[in-house]
Specification:
The chain has 153 residues and is an all-alpha fold.
């Protein structure tokens, strides 16, 4: 049980830490320091690794949460945590496997002179969805922390 708790908390910390660091430190810094096209290329190189890290942390966290749920005396909080983790993992996996490759494919067309309005609109939609999913992962993760850290009576 102790190892499952360590894996759970470490996985969740790495996962949420990566979301916070990329969203609030890396992306604003890269876009603030580099021209837009170059910043887009840098972020495009970071995203595949970012999503692999999220998926790995998510799988470990989900496995630990499932074990803690099965072994808990009071299973309801761990059931909730496990469901939240599964939703987080689904959102991150979809963003990494579907949205990110599609956005990356459009990135080259965006930097042609001038990009077509349709291409820009499709990229903007994908970017907005990726940001929304990333925000959902963060909020669900905060909910996991609150639920899992709640003292048991």
């Amino acid at each position: 049980m102790t190892i499952a708790r360590i894996v759970f908390w470490l996985g969740l910390a790495v996962w949420l830490g990566s979301v916070v660091f990329l969203s609030f430190i890396v992306a604003p810094s890269v876009f603030g320091a580099l021209p837009r096209e170059e910043a887009g290329r840098v972020m495009g190189a970071i995203f595949p690794r970012y999503y692999v890290l999220q998926s790995a942390a998510g799988v470990l966290t989900l496995a630990a949460a499932l074990l803690l749920w099965l072994r808990a005396r009071e299973s309801r909080p761990w059931r909730t945590v496990t469901i939240l983790i599964a939703l987080m993992l689904a959102a991150a996996a979809y963003a990494g496997a579907v949205i990110q490759p599609r956005a990356q494919a459009l990135r080259t067309a965006l930097h042609s002179e001038p990009p077509s309005p349709e291409t820009q609109a499709r990229f903007d939609l994908l970017h907005r969805r990726a940001v929304q999913l990333n925000g959902a992962v963060l909020l669900l993760g905060i909910g996991c922390v609150a639920c899992a850290a709640r003292p048991r009576a």
